[in-house]
Amino acid sequence: MCDFDDDCGDNSDEDITKCRDSYRKCSESEFRCANNKCIQGRFKCDHDDDCGDASDEKDSLCKDFQKCTTEQFTCASGHCTSLLNLCDGHRDCQDASDERNCTAWYPGRKYCPATRFECNNHICIPLAWRCDAQNDCGDDSDEAPSVCKQVNCTVPEKFLCNNFKCVSSWRRCDGIDNCGDKSDEENCEIKKECSADEFKCADGTCIDGGKVCDNSHDCKDFSDERGCHKGSGLKCDDNNGGCEHNCTDLSQDSYYCSCAPGFRQSSINRKECEDINECATWGNNCPQDCLNVKGSFKCRCHKGFSDPHNRGQECKSDDSSIIILFTMGDEVRQYRSKSKDYTTEVISGVRSAGIDIDADRRLVYWSDTNLGKIFRASVPKDDKKKAVAQDLEIVGAKHPEGLSVDWAAKNIYWTDYESRTISVANADGYYQRTLISTDLRYPLAIAVHPGLGYMYWTDANVFRPRIERAWMNGDERSVLVSTKLGFPSGLAIDFHMGGRVYWCDSKENLIESMKPDGSDRVLVTAKSVFNPVSVDVFEGSMYWLSESLGQLASMDKFGRENNKTIQTGLQLPKGLKVFHINRYNISIKSGCKKLACSHLCLIIPGGARCACPEGTTFLPDTNNTSCDAAHPKPVRPPPGDVCKCLNGGVCSSDENDVITYCKCPTGFDGDFCEVSNNGTVTQNPEGIAGGITSVEDHVAIIVPIVVGGIAVLILVLVVFILRKRGVDFNFKKLITKSNPNSPTVSFKEGGKIRLGVPEMTFDGQGHAEMQPTSGDSPTNFSNPIYDNLHAPQSDVILPIHGPNYESSTDPERGDASNGGSVKGSKGRIPPPQSPTSPGPSKEFRIAPRALDPNMDDDERDNTGLVKFGEL
């Protein structure tokens, strides 16, 4: 309730009068929509209806719309796209203005090759997309009557509409106006309920009751002749006719046996019934596990999921933090279902397309068809932070489209439209290898199932579209679907429902499903689905992107309810993936650890096999585990950086992907966009001094302070108690190591004493350099001023107990251990003689120690500043 989702179906759970006080407060960097939804401030006045009610694009609000950067082209609609997308035959602006004023490169001043249809706005589309009742050009020029009259609508694969448009013949009489003029729904047989004197065939059609058991197959499925018993002389009154379940008397001394719901007639004995395994086919509506019982079935949820009604029919993750990631232009955006936050996750590239995740390591991977690159980034736990893109620098990628991550063996798979291949590399982008390179026309979507060892892909060939499957090492390739396909654009696997495969068709405007082996194909929904380009499944829902409508939508994954619009205002979105830690079974063991492959380990059904990078082979006598290929060093670490730009700011990087500065939105400034127009600091980025951005940050600072304070209080209390008991607790004695033969002095405060400082010379070289001392040094030192007063300036003074210098034969310092003179070491005290050597030589005179209590001294401490004793 009050979550901007129409859960009731009549929107009563989102009534503004009930929800007015239930909405969260928008932050300073967010914009409050008229419907009380919070969106990023940078989404305001960007020509997209991000609010869903267009309140972020009102004329009264948007006096100045956001401006595109110098690296972007401004569409006529005001949207932004990369300059690299100009004049390439693709529609990157919603209004196709990126293809205006371009140079005609083809003969006859054409903008498209002869193998493609040139729209009036210079967009190039496949010839087969002409007059298919869809506006593929964007200006409807591909659906113009003058064009459609010239298109050959082949029969029986196609149906010619009254408006000359051409649709798939199997879409006729499906209850949907595919032609646009409803001519495909004319002259259709009307399905009706069977009357009391009619027999309902297994396929739902009705026949006259007198035709049952007449030895003639009146039902197309022959169901009217099953369970028939004629001329036996028995009636249902006689022991139920011998029928195990139901018995129905018929005319001509005959009767009919039928079975109760959940059972069907035995193929061996038509009077007996056998249990139907509802879990084996579509229709049980169990979102996860299905347990067959006699005559019925039960639904169960997997670990980590639960049903509030304990029926196993609404399996929701115990952690409701679902993140929907999708690609759009040069961005990967995210929608967080729990908080309803719609933000930018990462910005990098030009035309992002396929996307997938490694939930175990919180990484998102995506492809860029314009740059021919594959990127990855971390998924920040905080939706206010953006990630930093990392280019995997995959050699051989030209036009990567679909992308899928093998989270068990840590590999990535992708399709490439330009090279017409399917390839694999490890998760860091190394060891690229081509797996499929033959009989591919337009490899598009791809999905892998490490638990089963299979990979699935779509070939969106406009003349022969297919969905295929192979082992994840490329072996055992087979075609699963080759009929009733238009343009299979998206592919997904329901890992919690037996690995069931879903796909969307952007030309037929529908979503279908099948079992992992291609059997049990069913139409999930064709209701209110328009131009779906990507699909994904999680829990009990399926999600899809509509490219033409610019929408993210969802529906019950069995097609039982109306679809819900989650987000609008998307600029030609492409790829979609649901991120959640429970999406996959991350405990699956790949078997690669036992194989110890030197480079690639590829999962297959029931195990795994080693593989070598492109152009290399296995080394002899290594049992096909080691390759004659190099190992890159160091291995590229996964991205851990998070963009610290705040309030909708965007991280700007150099050519080496090193963040250099933040591009701040209107209304914010500062190195991290942390300062608003009124001069207040809204928040601080993580890692910046004074930056407390979360509860964890507060705890990390407060807890050590509290613990340290308690420790100090305990220490003070212990010292106080010990001194009360008469213990002389002297800290200086604990931390100072004094020589017992050397008396020490301690100083107390007294009056100001002015001491004359004589010139300090050493070896006649002038002033000695003063060396700084540590504040932690003990005070049992000799006074150098006093020592020099008792020595002729030509003598070298040796202290009796000097610092512990090491002997040196460095020519810069002289060899004092042999009694030689010290040269070239201005102001440096020579090392002392060792304790075992004879006394000092005649050239040296031992000076009396300053304030030595054993000698007579006229200059002793007469004012009582010095207290004698030992530490």
Structure summary:
By secondary structure, the protein is mainly beta.
Description:
The protein is mostly beta strands and 871 residues long. The protein folds into six domains: 66 residues, Low-density Lipoprotein Receptor; 82 residues, Low-density Lipoprotein Receptor (Irregular); 34 residues, Low-density Lipoprotein Receptor; 266 residues, TolB, C-terminal domain (Neuraminidase, 6 Propeller), CATH 2.120.10.30; 66 residues, Laminin (Ribbon); 104 residues, no CATH class. Helices cover 6% and strands 28% of the residues. A hairpin with a 5-residue loop joins β9 and β10. It is globular. About 14% of the residues have low confidence.
Write the layout of secondary structure elements.
Elements: H1 16-19, E1 30-32, E2 38-40, E3 72-74, E4 80-82, E5 116-118, E6 124-126, H2 145-148, E7 158-160, E8 166-168, E9 198-200, E10 206-208, E11 228-230, E12 246-250, E13 254-258, E14 263-265, E15 273-275, E16 289-293, E17 296-300, E18 305-306, E19 316-317, E20 323-328, E21 331-336, E22 341-347, E23 352-358, E24 363-368, E25 373-378, E26 386-387, E27 390-391, E28 400-406, E29 411-416, E30 421-426, E31 433-436, E32 443-449, E33 454-459, E34 466-471, E35 478-481, E36 488-494, E37 500-505, E38 510-514, E39 522-525, E40 532-538, E41 541-546, E42 551-556, E43 564-567, E44 573-579, H3 592-595, E45 600-604, E46 607-611, E47 642-643, E48 650-653, E49 659-663, E50 668-669, E51 675-676, H4 695-724, H5 731-735, E52 744-747, H6 784-789, E53 797-798, E54 845-846, E55 866-869
Parallel strand pairs: 53-54
Antiparallel strand pairs: 1-2, 3-4, 5-6, 7-8, 9-10, 11-13, 12-13, 14-15, 16-17, 18-19, 20-21, 20-44, 21-22, 23-24, 24-25, 25-27, 26-47, 28-29, 29-30, 30-31, 32-33, 33-34, 34-35, 36-37, 37-38, 38-39, 40-41, 41-42, 42-43, 45-46, 48-49, 50-51, 52-55
Transmembrane segments: 701-722
Biased composition (Polar residues): 771-785
Domain EGF-like: 639-674
